[in-house]
Backbone:
């Protein structure tokens, strides 16, 4: 009997990052020293106060299901955070706490999308956005950007694309951005928000990297532009990146009541609530851990400065200075072009950036994420959630690998 696989499951492509990370994992297991620039999580430990609160929650037997949307005490803290950091007034009824920001986005998309709706996504983009959009039978519409505009879309571009579509439903905006590190400024957000309001397009604003921002840049939530924009925006955030809590699984969404109430209903049938212990711990993160965040941010900034300077010293590698998050996206197009010229074999379906990344991991034991994972093949992504020592050594290997790739037939 043929195994019945749904059209939805068939549509989800394997992540192009998987081959490289599978090779890296296997090499590590074989005792090979691999420098991994592929990781998407802070390399720091969760701050002590957060861990202590979790242990206390277990000892207090705070271990049962909670309200689907999250305990009131936590949602009150999130509301206070949204007011303090983002100048947003949000009732706790309009906040949904989910098992990670990834789940928050998924439940929001399930709430707002009908089949064939179009969801606008600036490219390069975080890979899960497009897969999640496909999982709700909607269509991702990518808006291309380039290093010339610091990988940011413009309102004009958005207007042009929107007017060419039949069912534009929402824009997913991610600032600070994974993978480019770009940060949108207030004026840019005002212009983008105006286009969205004019065409009735919701904004899903993923602000998960809000606290990791450099060079005096300021994070502005697009929802804070005006009360009308606030009513048109679902803000997504969480504790994973800022508080080094990726494994604890807690994110949240805040937005218009009618959307949030329905998203909570969907979550109630999909996952019930977030782990009760994590909820207690997250209150401490939001309330008491700004000093810990600041320490991590400063360390990230030092690593970023070193990484970008050194990347730009490698012949024909160009890298914009990212203003936020913990990623850098150097262009390696020269090396890819050169390889393409030499290679007479027809392309095998694996993109050039995937093949270059495979060459680097196999021969130089350095793992980077191929740009094609984010919709742009000319680049690779580095995560600087890595020690200075690793960054220094990894850069040496990367430079040597690129140089060697010019002579190799990959
Ligand atoms: C842009 C972006 N949004 C959301 C997430 C998901 O975070 P969480 O761990 O809260 O699910 C990630 C994680 O990599 C991310 O890069």
Residues:
């Amino acid at each position: 009997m043929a195994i019945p696989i749904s059209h939805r499951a068939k549509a989800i492509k394997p992540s192009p990052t998987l081959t490289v990370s599978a090779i890296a994992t296997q090499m590590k297991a074989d005792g090979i020293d691999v420098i991994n620039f592929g990781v998407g999580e802070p390399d720091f430990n969760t701050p002590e106060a957060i861990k202590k609160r979790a242990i206390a929650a277990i000892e207090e037997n705070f271990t049962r299901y909670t309200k689907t949307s999250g305990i009131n005490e936590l949602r009150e803290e999130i509301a206070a955070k949204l007011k303090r950091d983002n100048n947003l007034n949000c009732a706790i009824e309009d906040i949904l706490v989910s098992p990670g920001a990834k789940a928050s986005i998924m439940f929001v998309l399930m709430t707002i999308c009908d089949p064939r709706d179009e969801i606008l996504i600036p490219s390069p983009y975080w890979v899960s956005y497009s897969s999640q959009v496909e999982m709700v039978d909607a269509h991702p519409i990518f808006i291309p950007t380039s290093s010339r505009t610091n990988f940011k879309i413009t309102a004009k571009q958005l207007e042009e694309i929107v007017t060419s579509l039949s069912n534009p439903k929402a824009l997913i905006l991610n600032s600070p951005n994974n993978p480019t590190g770009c940060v949108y400024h207030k004026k840019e957000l005002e212009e983008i928000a105006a286009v969205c309001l004019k065409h009735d397009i919701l904004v899903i604003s993923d602000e998960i990297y809000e606290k990791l921002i450099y060079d005096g840049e300021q994070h502005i939530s697009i929802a804070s532009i005006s009360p009308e924009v606030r009513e048109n925006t679902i803000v997504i955030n969480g504790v994973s990146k800022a508080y080094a809590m990726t494994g604890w699984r807690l994110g949240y969404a805040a937005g218009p009541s009618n959307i949030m109430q329905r998203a909570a209903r969907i979550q109630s049938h999909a996952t019930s609530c977030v782990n009760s212990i994590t909820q207690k711990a997250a209150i401490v993160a939001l309330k008491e851990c700004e000093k810990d965040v600041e320490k991590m941010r400063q360390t990230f900034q030092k690593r970023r400065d070193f990484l970008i300077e050194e990347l730009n010293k490698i012949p024909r590698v160009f890298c914009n200075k990212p203003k936020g998050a913990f990623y850098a996206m150097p262009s390696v197009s020269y090396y890819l072009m050169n390889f393409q010229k030499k290679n007479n074999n027809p392309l095998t379906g694996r993109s050039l950036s995937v093949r270059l990344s495979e060459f680097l991991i196999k021969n130089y034991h350095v793992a980077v994420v191929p740009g094609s994972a984010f919709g742009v093949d000319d680049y690779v992504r580095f995560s600087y959630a890595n020690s200075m020592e690793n960054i220094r050594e990894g850069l040496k290997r990367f430079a040597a690998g690129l140089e060697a790739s010019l002579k190799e037939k990959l």
In short: The first strand starts at residue 35 and ends at 36. The CA atoms of residues 164 and 392 lie 47 Å apart. Residues 290-313 form the longest helix (24 residues).
